[in-house]
Amino acid sequence: MAGKVKWVTDIEKSVLINNFEKRGWIQVTDSDDWNFYWMSIQTIRNVFSVDTGYRLSDDQMVNHFPNHYELTRKDLMIKNIKRYRKELEKEASPLAEKDENGKHLYLDFVPVTFMLPADYNLFVEEFRKSPSSTWIMKPCGKAQGKGIFLINKLSQIKKWSRDSQVENTNSEILVGLNNDNSQLFGIIDSPLHLLICTKGLCFVRYKLGFCRFCTVKYTPSTSELDNMFVHLTNVAIQKHGDDYNHVHGGKWTVSNLRLYLESTRGRDVTNHLFDQIHWIIVQSLKAVAPVMNNDKHCFECYGYDIIIDDKLKPWLIEVNASPSLTSSTANDRILKYNLINDTLNIVTPNGEIPDCRWNRSLPKEALGHYQVLYDEEQALSESAERDLRSRSGQLLGSKGSRSSSVRPFPATWK
């Protein structure tokens, strides 16, 4: 399609603007005719608001889904994952299989979580089973570590309730378990790009992510409960610490993390960890797929916060709708510039004016540093092939012989 892409953004970040300018795209205002709008989550609410009556044309694309919050609000994410588990249980899906203690074998990737004030009585019951545990309070609609604090006594919850007057509001607060017997290794902050194609769902992960660490060594001591430099890896918090390093910003690249783990824990263990992380990403996205408004004008860059415990088990903490595009280090700037560049190569192939009717498969060379984790079309093809092999008696093995350590289906991202 002839012509230059006309772009708008309300996020003035150099990694965005430099990418647009490199392509020779033309900057316009939101009141002009535009083709590509990289917008904040506040703006997306206005664009898709029923009050504005705004309708996007075939040659317009935006970087958020209308109801992205089904995944990026902490309480809704938990709600959707729990619903997903129950639906799979009703279908008697092997994915919902549990061990003798009632724990999911394949879908146990979120910490024990309660929403307050609605789940207060359930929380008290759980707390009394293990009164020495430490819990972390996380406001559902905030980011960058704002409003987070740790508790190890019920009296602290009561004080919080009085101070915030939560009984007079409709706000929900998420409480996630921070196990004393499972020291946190760190957070992998892995930018993920979710692309909705007209043929179906396609999830791709950016391979050049990074992981964040605290500037103060972790300790389960109750005397350090109020020390956020021990418990929260958010750069917005850590950059104010005395030991913050402005060169590396308290971050490792994911490739450096892999090298460290391979040298200390072995390659097989490391590969298993990253396989589990990919599994978490795919299953969390499939959990929200039925309720997500997959508007053909939209794509999404999600930031996944995954904590790794000392047993190298990954846990999904939250998903960010707008991963930070601020560059705190030189490596940060390079990574995020490349992330945007590779993203634009996928959603606007060859720098062409967007066409939401685009129905072509993703060429491998267009992926850049992305890797395909899940492709619905490929998965359906694999399912049909398995069914055919099963009916013809060629499918080897049986449910009784399946090892509990392996998933019942092949990994579609491999």
Task: Give a summary of the structure in a few sentences.
InterPro entries: TTL/TTLL_fam. The protein is an alpha+beta fold.
Structure characteristics:
about 20% strand, Dna Ligase, domain 1, D-amino Acid Aminotransferase, Chain A, domain 1, alpha+beta, 3 domains, about 425 residues, seven-stranded antiparallel sheet
Report on the architecture of this protein:
This protein is α+β, with helices and mostly antiparallel strands and 414 residues long. The chain folds into three domains: 60 residues, no CATH class; 66 residues, Dna Ligase, domain 1, CATH 3.30.1490; 196 residues, D-amino Acid Aminotransferase, Chain A, domain 1 (2-Layer Sandwich), CATH 3.30.470.20. The chain is 32% helix and 19% strand. The protein contains twelve helices and 15 strands. Strands 9, 10, 11, 12, 13, 14 and 15 form a seven-stranded antiparallel β-sheet that branches. The protein is globular, with a radius of gyration of 22 Å. The relative contact order is 0.16. The C terminus is likely disordered. It is found in: Cytoplasm, Cytoskeleton, Cilium basal body. InterPro entries: TTL/TTLL_fam (IPR004344). It holds the Pfam family TTL.
Q: In terms of topology, how is this protein built?
A:
Layout: E1 6-9, H1 14-22, E2 26-27, E3 36-38, H2 41-47, E4 61-62, H3 69-72, H4 74-90, E5 113-116, H5 120-129, E6 134-139, E7 149-151, H6 154-164, E8 173-178, E9 184-197, E10 200-206, E11 210-212, H7 228-231, H8 235-238, E12 251-253, H9 254-265, H10 267-288, E13 300-309, E14 314-320, H11 330-347, E15 370-375, H12 376-391
Parallel strand pairs: 1-2, 1-3, 3-4
Antiparallel strand pairs: 5-8, 6-7, 6-8, 9-10, 9-11, 9-13, 10-15, 11-12, 13-14
Helix pairs in contact: 1-11, 4-10, 9-10
